[in-house]
Amino acid sequence: MTSPATAQAPLIRLEEVTKVYPGRGRQSSPVTAVDGVSLEVMPGEIQAIVGYSGAGKSTLVRLINALEPATSGSITVDGTEVVGLSERQLRHLRLRIGMIFQQFNLFDSRTVWGNLAYPLHVAGVPKSEHQQRISELLHFVGLPDKAHVYPGHLSGGQKQRVGIARALATNPTLLLADEATSALDPETTGEVLELLNRVNAEFGTTIVVITHEMEVVRELADKVAVMEAGRIVESGPVFEVFSKPVQPVTRRFVGTVVDDLPPGPVLEALRARHTGRFVTLAFHDPEVRQSDVYAVLARHGVGFELIYGGIEEIQGVTFGNLTLALVGADDAVEQALADVRGLVPVTDLDRLEED
């Protein structure tokens, strides 16, 4: 039986991990791809790591799987210190880690069945057990009729389902997904994310997702870490990071799925179509409903029109930013805003323009 202390230990612990590549020429300086990263991922969590191209996120996942050695720092996976392991020891560790790739990485010369049999063979699973395990995997990913089809005859979504089945073949405790949906259309992406959610829910598999798509983070992850220039610059529960982004890079990412303040050209266009006092209300507290705020405005006799923004749902909680055009006597609007500020953060766009 596992002790409570052990049960709460991180499945992944990174401590001041750095990866430096030598310069490509004699005069070239070394390149630091990962710079002093520390991160913990608990068992059963879905951790997203996001960043723009060159941020170091894909290098970081290769360090976790020991596909590349860290230059310095400590990497512990499922209780095993990865740094310094021999290749034989690493092979044993990797049996507990499944990998899903952007370009699927299937063997074109093997059928779907053959692709799923390969990791079983490498893991030393008796051939007599292959049929049952492969059949279970194909039914789980919804492809029981594709066993004898070659990858060239599958759609992108079907290839990724095979990739997920292959990654699950040896019952890993950890699944690493490196840009697993980047090559897929939005509908297929949704199907793959739903499947990964099932993997996590039904098997308790810990998942680390490398992505630059905040839609993936919103739909899948429990926590998110934002990387820039090789460092983690912001991290935490997805709702917390989405609702209160601190770093500029995080705000840019969040802005791809959640409207913030209307940018200058948009604001000018809104002013051409609407009159009144423009304010943006931040609904980031799950205890405050929109109707609470609208009731305050009505009590002061202030009319309003919703002109920009939207409300999203993250981890079952709704939040977002709404820009309103308020109409009423100046004193009434001021009093109404004073009361509204007791409920939600208010950005007075008229005052911003004056400043």
Helix content: 25-40%
> Quick one: how many beta strands?
14
Major β-sheet, in short? 6 strands, mixed
Low-confidence runs of at least 5 consecutive residues: 1-6
Q: What is the CATH class of the largest domain?
A: Alpha Beta
CATH fold-level label of the largest domain:
Rossmann fold
H and E order: HEEEHEEHEHHHEHEHEEHHHEHEEHEH
**Helix/strand/pairing class, anyone?**
alpha/beta
Please identify which CATH superfamily of the largest domain we are dealing with.
P-loop containing nucleotide triphosphate hydrolases
Number of domains: 2
Name the overall outline.
elongated
What is the number of helical segments per DSSP (H or I, 4+ residues)? 14
Order of neighbouring strands in the sheet with most strands: 6-7-8-3-9-10
Q: What's the N-to-C terminus distance?
A: 63 Å
Radius of gyration: 25 Å
What value does the average pLDDT take?
A: 90
Strand content: 25-35%
Can you walk through the features of this model?
With 355 residues, this protein is α/β, with parallel strands linked by helices. The protein folds into two domains: 4-96 and 172-254, Rossmann fold; 264-354, Alpha-Beta Plaits (2-Layer Sandwich), CATH 3.30.70.260. The chain is 37% helix and 27% strand. The chain is built from 14 helices and 14 strands. A six-stranded mixed beta sheet has the order 6-7-8-3-9-10, with helices on both faces. Helix 7 (186-203) links the parallel strand 7 (174-178) and strand 8 (206-211). Helix 4 (112-122) runs parallel beside helix 6, helix 5 (130-140) crosses helix 6 and helix 6 (156-168) packs parallel to helix 7 (186-203). The longest helix is centred in the middle third of the chain and has 18 residues, at 186-203.
